[in-house]
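Subject: Protein record for review, amino acid sequence with backbone structure tokens
Category: Structural biology, sequence-to-fold work with a learned token vocabulary.
Format: Residues in single-letter code; tokens as whole numbers, each standing for a residue.
Body of memo: The sequence and its backbone structure tokens, given next.
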Amino acid sequence: MIKDRYLEKAIIADLKDKMVFIGGPRQVGKTTLAKQIGKENYSDFAYYNWDNRDDRRDLLSGKRPSEARLAIYDELHKYKQWKNYIKGEFDKHQDDFDIMVTGSARLDLYRRGGDSLMGRYHYYRLHPFSVRELLAVKPAIKAGREPVFPPTDNTTSRAFADLFAFGGFPEPLFAKKTATLRRFHNERLERLVKEDIRDLESLRDLSAIQVLVELLPGRVGSLLSLNSLREDLQVTHKTISLWMEVLEKFYYHFRIYPFASNSIKSLRKEPKLYLWDWSQVADEAARLENMAASHLLKLVHYLYDTQGYKAELHYLRDQEGREVDFLVTIDKKPWLAIEVKLSSQAVENSVGYFAKRLAIPYVYQIVKESGIDFKKNGTRVMSADKFFGGLV
């Protein structure tokens, strides 16, 4: 098991000034990270889980160990008045103990029944493990500059292979057993729909949402048509839109949108869909693309959450059908363009076209095969394991 997660140092620094909220998918390691920070950096800490009856009673009664220097509140967003509660705790006790809140939903979106917490917290999104994090190499990337890619060896290749096969969630990744992976998928999705979503959202047809969850892995990497999903599930457009928003709040999937620019005739509508757990994607080419999307989203979230850069992830597609899988921007300006191919090392013409029209500084085409790194017509063709090793 990796000793330190990639966000640990930044979180510890921020706890000195404000509350820290940590969101992320169920079972990605939020509680483990929070408790590790408590054990290694505080003489004593208190942990409360809203799903535990005794903890819930203690929270509502105001009971807590007086010697605790850190209070960790897990799944507190399931309490209807949680914003008011945590605001009161911070305003009253900010000089007595630090506060960390973790949850499997978008804590920055759930603003139910209470005053704004603006200015009182920093928000982090904890991602699954990536190649660089498995290598136990701290992030060193600098916004706007070319990533520094470490030389690949058997350790890098093995880290990539494990992640490709088992995904980045700790339980199946470190078990390295297909039976564990299958059980993890079943249990995670069951709890997502029947516990997390049921507890927070007023949705009646949970069985239909489970069907939707089973349909989405087959849509990975393609333009997302809500109308097509609506027809498959025989529901209204308003209903399918709501369900997709709910699943996104709970970190099941994420959507990226086309980059709009006056320099190209951009496609301005349909997003592309990816899962937080790429191991659910059966098709190898789609899984590699999803793995790339996840690594790049982790990069932009890291730059935004820890350093305040307005980093965003898009894809490129124009009205003539030219397309590049991913574009990372800083302050709306193109930075990295990435095309993903399972095996082809022939550089796509669309990559060069967009690179020239948008003046993209760094352009890559990544492939699954290890040991590849050469430049052709301004595009650096590189193995995925090496490319991911230069990110976060």
